Amino acid sequence: MSRLDDIPSSPGKFKMEKSSYFHRLRFQSSLTKFAFFSFFLLCLISILFLRSPPSVNPSQSDPSRRSLRTYSYGGPAWEKHLRASARIRTSNNGITVLVTGAAGFVGTHVSAALKRRGDGVIGLDNFNDYYDPSLKRARQALLERSGIFIVEGDINDVELLRKLFKIVSFTHVMHLAAQAGVRYAMENPSSYVHSNIAGLVNLLEICKSANPQPAIVWASSSSVYGLNTKVPFSEKDKTDQPASLYAATKKAGEEIAHTYNHIYGLSLTGLRFFTVYGPWGRPDMAYFFFTKDILKGKSISIFESANHGTVARDFTYIDDIVKGCLAALDTAEKSTGSGGKKRGPAQLRVFNLGNTSPVPVSDLVSILERQLKVKAKRNVIKMPRNGDVPFTHANISLAQHELGYKPTTDLQTGLKKFVRWYLSYYSGEKKAAAR
Ligand SMILES: O=C(O)[C@H]1O[C@H](OP(=O)(O)OP(=O)(O)OC[C@H]2O[C@@H](n3ccc(=O)[nH]c3=O)[C@H](O)[C@@H]2O)[C@H](O)[C@@H](O)[C@H]1O
Predict the structure, then answer these.
(1) Rounded to an integer, what distance in angstroms lies between the CA atom of residue 342 and that of residue 381?
(2) CATH number for the domain that contains residue 231
(3) Which amino acid residue places its CA nearest to atom 13 of ligand 1?
(4) 217: which of 133, 251, 328, 330 fits an S-S bond (Cβ 3.0–4.6 Å)?
(5) How far apart are CA 346 and CA 107, in angstroms?
(6) Residue 328 lies in a domain
(7) Is the CB of 411 under 6 A from ligand 1?
(8) 179 lines ligand 1 (CB under 6 A)
(9) Any catalytic annotation for residue 426?
(10) Which residue among 71, 246, 287, 405 is the active-site one?
(11) pTM of the model as a whole
(12) 301, β-bridge pairs
């Protein structure tokens, strides 16, 4: 077993335990008993599973999963669905993409857009419980309706990834699986190391050994600019002052990308996303939980920086981000290595994908108030020292030049679409629960 195999597969809110030498001694003495009971349990499980129908297991307990079908890992039905999902519909220039984090916010939108234009798409997601998994299941149901199969598994699972690459010849990987969130890194630091560092390395190990090697586009973050004060943030700026562990793991990811490009000839493009928002978004983000709390009449905390300074973000609408992701995939050159050996220099890129117009958080709240037609109970407080930075602002001229990236949605328009989705999604959920 490789060391990466030792990492538990689905962290979410799981926190790794600290082990000690004494614990290990006690553990070894009870190993024999444990082995006996494990063997007994395994026999029991095998009997039960052999008796049940082999392929289709629709979930009974979670209402959002009722329409979904999951296929037993590795079986013929599983492989059939994998191949169908990976099939390219367009006659020429289609690509076959593994989208990691496909049930996530950006992953869902990118997967749907790729499928719409005829590309082959396979999703991978561990469905962890960092935020309400029923939202991820609803996104999965949406993708399934357009013929996208999401494999349930973790990017740290070596065997699963090997199997996927054996069955499907991926031309591209869109790597969006990550532990997101700036403030949560203080609560559960190991989940960031697990997904954003160990998971990335594991994925790149598989990609470097694949034949052909895919080109990889992956999600970095605006947070790598950390405490920089020169604005707008440019890719040429130093990124050596991360303010959170989240930012530090994304910065580490950029360095790891450099290494795999240098040694193995992998084509790698990192996209620094700037506070992405929109329909099907992440409930841990401020615009999302502000909406929820305003509607409930609960007070919301609005952060301000030192000396009553404004905190602002370069909020970027999801459709603009999707266009940037697709353009990055389309302009990615092929990796130059094969079977783990570099054959020549390969492309290595980093782009800012922002909106270029920062908006104060208090203005975001005013827009939400107007659209929800409810006054917010504002509680303005000093920004806690929890990994947040006072402002972000993207210089996007590189992405404009190389990718033709041109964001077109202002915050007012984007939030209108988000609010419309939010009200319809959650009123639908209430109706379903009442039925
Ligand atoms: O660009 C990124 O790379 C990151 O974007 C996002 O981080 P942020 O820009 O911090 O977004 P988000 O948490 O929505 O806070 C928005 C604003 O509300 C302020 N904020 C927040 C909470 C609160 O209670 N009050 C408040 O004023 C807060 O100070 C901030 O000014 C992603 O979550 C992250 O995963 C990563 O992708």
Answers:
(1) 53
(2) 3.40.50.720
(3) 285
(4) 328
(5) 25
(6) yes
(7) no
(8) no
(9) no
(10) 246
(11) 0.86
(12) 379
